[in-house]
Specification:
The chain is 25% helix and 30% strand. It has a single domain, classed as Rossmann fold (3-Layer(aba) Sandwich), CATH 3.40.50. With 186 residues, it is of the alpha/beta class.
Length: 186
């Protein structure tokens, strides 16, 4: 496996290789395209920065009309430790009222971020609102939030690659990998 030879020094192991991710993204896109076949157009709201690669791949596989918008959040993380407080730092360009909104997020951990997003967007009266999340760490959940489209469940380890970072590093690795615990443990 060439990926193993090229692993950066902070990486413990590859959890999901490029082919596995692409296959699952295709399945999710097919499912979403089928579910929304009759609604006209949807708006994909990508959560920056982590979801940008997932959103790009997913959107290009959709066979339904769609447009893309983004929001950015700050979650007061200290390294790998989430404080649970979420703040909107960049809103969507266009209003979403009356539109079919699909929130596209990289990962759900405690659930605070997705819960905040769902509550925020629901208040804007979209025609419908669903969530699409690439990764979930079920063991870590503190808030119960509905994920309508989920890519993969993963164990409680810090992952990087395919948009996900640690201190803004490793986002553009083509695979999803676990970081060595000594890198993020405090
Ligand atoms: P939650 O609010 O605890 O569910 O955390 C969700 C956010 O924390 C995600 O949007 C990510 O930005 C970040 N996050 C949680 N776990 C990881 C991880 O393993 N790698 C990279 N980012 C993570
Ligand atoms: Mg995120």
């Amino acid at each position: 496996m060439t990926e193993r030879l090229a692993l950066p020094k902070d990486i413990e192991r590859v959890l999901l290789d490029e082919e596995t991710i692409q296959r699952r993204v295709r399945e999710l896109a097919d499912q979403i395209s089928a579910d929304y076949a009759d609604v006209g157009e949807i708006v994909l709201v990508g959560v920056l920065k982590g979801a940008f690669i997932f959103l790009a791949d997913l959107a290009r596989r959709l066979t339904i009309p769609h447009h893309v918008d983004f929001i950015a959040l700050s979650s007061y993380n200290r390294g790998a430790v989430s404080t649970g407080a979420v703040r909107l730092i960049m809103d969507t360009r266009a209003p979403v009222t009356g539109q079919h909104v699909l929130i596209v997020e990289d990962i759900i951990d405690t659930g605070y971020t997705l819960d905040y997003l769902v509550r925020t967007f629901r208040a804007r009266r979209p025609a419908s609102l669903r969530t699409c999340v690439l990764l979930s760490k079920p063991e870590r959940r503190e808030v119960d939030v509905r994920v309508d489209y989920l890519g993969f469940e993963i164990p409680d380890v810090w992952v990087v690659g395919y948009g996900l970072d640690y201190a803004d590093k490793y986002r553009t690795l083509p695979y999803i990998a676990a970081l060595k615990r000594e890198v993020y443990a405090t």
